[in-house]
Amino acid sequence: MPNRLSSNAGHGTRLLAHLLPLLLALTLPVVNCTSKASKSSNQPVTVPKNTATTTNSAPAIDLNCVLSHIQNPPEPFHYSFKSESSESWIEDADVTPQKIDGSFSNNSLPMPQKFHGTPQEVASNLMAIGRMASIFATVRNTAAVVKEGKEDGLNGYSTFKYSIDTARGTPAEQELYKSVLGPGGFEKGTVWTTSDGCPVKIVLEEELHAKDGSVLGKAHYEEMMRKM
Questions:
Q1: Per the structure, how many domains does the chain have?
Q2: Is 21's pLDDT higher than 60?
């Protein structure tokens, strides 16, 4: 069966940035229902820790936390991830400390590929959140990220709400965004995290532009953890 992971659409430096979190993942096998992953596929995958904050007090947005919850579930929860772009990517799973029942699909494998097993056996099939590491690195510690306040009860969690908009960047930050996203390119969305920065929900839009300002690609991302 072909590898489930494919590269994200993009150009220039942004394409390379999106591919970096996947380099280790590209050799991981697909785990079919009732089958067990090899020992090598069970090795933890580390996403560069994101510390996006603003001048007001707020926890970091930590994508590693999501991977940690999947690999070592502290409680039962439902997890989902969706990327809508030229390279679609969907993951969906019920996760408990004892087992994971889930599925994934992408352009190469449009039909949901189901799997189940213990977290140690099949967690490697839920790695799409790693694709967002470079996206959050672009806005990390910049004025694009603003804490909007607390919001209780979202998906069963008490959360902090952030808004993300690269249009808010300082002149120096705008130069950074321009070098990564292209002239007129942007990232914009909303993130809700737990008190320790674990993203409970992410809704994010990204648009990449060429040097002449023309649109190279668009992507819509969604991530969710919901207590069961």
A1: 1
A2: no
| CB distance 47 to 198 below 8 Å | no
Q: Please, are residues 178 and 201 in contact by the beta-carbon 8 Å criterion?
A: no
Distance CA 220, CA 77 (A): 23
Domain that holds residue 74: 12-227
**What is the model's pLDDT at position 133?**
78
Examine residue 159 and state whether it is found in any structural domain, yes or no. Answer: yes
The DSSP H or E segment spanning 226 is: strand 215-227
Quote the pLDDT of residue 136.
85
Kindly report each contact of residues 205-212 with a partner whose C-beta sits within 8 Å and lies 24 or more positions away, as own/partner. 206/135, 206/181, 207/181, 208/10, 208/11, 208/14, 208/181, 208/182, 209/181, 209/182, 209/183, 209/184, 209/185, 210/11, 210/182, 211/182, 211/183, 212/183
Output the pLDDT for position 209: 97
Q: Which two tokens stand for residue 111?
A: 């039909």
Is residue 1 situated within a structural domain?
no
**Which of 58-62, 99-103, 205-209 is least confident?**
58-62
Residues 206 and 212: their CA atoms lie apart, in Å, by 18
CA distance 107 to 164: 28
104 beta partners: 91, 113
